[in-house]
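Journal club prep — side note

Before the paper discussion, L.F. wants everyone to see what a predicted structure for a comparable chain looks like in token form. Sequence:
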Amino acid sequence: MKKGLWFALCAVLTVSLLAGCGASNEGSGDKTYLFATDAQYAPMEFMDKDKITGFDADFLEAVMKEAGLKYELKNVGWDTLLVSLEKGIDYDAAISSVTISDDRLKTNDFSRPYFESTNMILTKEGSPIKSALDLKDKKVGVQGLTTADILMMELTSKDNANIKKFDSNAVAIMELEQGGVDAVVADMAVVTEYVRNNPDKKFVSIIDVENFGSEYYGIMLPKGSELKVKLDPAIKTVLENGTYAELYKKWFNKDADTAKLLEQQ
């Protein structure tokens, strides 16, 4: 055999062996999946010093343990999270109280639902606001690119200057404190937690499922992600084996309706 041919054959064999080793490593669970979150949604996800904590963080840990997958959770901005997952860059998935909606399903995949929520109104004591319909002629603060943002635009009009959009719910609530808006609309868990932790602020929360409706959170994925078929069975098991109920009780001090969640697909 000619020396040149021998070296060429060795090179081919070496590349083949390396490729085989690489596939084996990924298949054996060595891959670390990178998850994004916007840790400004206490008690769902928030920073405790330099650690991301909250219901979503605990839930993800339980799901990934059940699935036998390694992961890392990164705190990023809400806008960054949405853009990255839509384009399928930087992150493999996102868990950040992300509502499964028809619009988002056009650009992204989602895991099976794992949390039922609704939007709530936060306003000051003595306010004439009693329901979502009372918001039509009021100044309302929302976090941009959230379902609260979409709901308020639908309830009023898309060019309504009274809808003030902020980078986070925390900034929107600060605007309410300072009198810049009459109310804030945000996820139920966020509003409830804020009222509970700030009794001195004299704020009240108003639930209006009739006008706001219910919504479900899911783990957000790029279109065609391999993770969905790995996450869905693990989420189902966590819902069924009592782990989810324990986490829900820990963070919300009430029982979870796991049966209703299991009905969702």
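L.F.'s comment for the group: The longest strand covers residues 32-37. Keep this in mind when we get to the figures.
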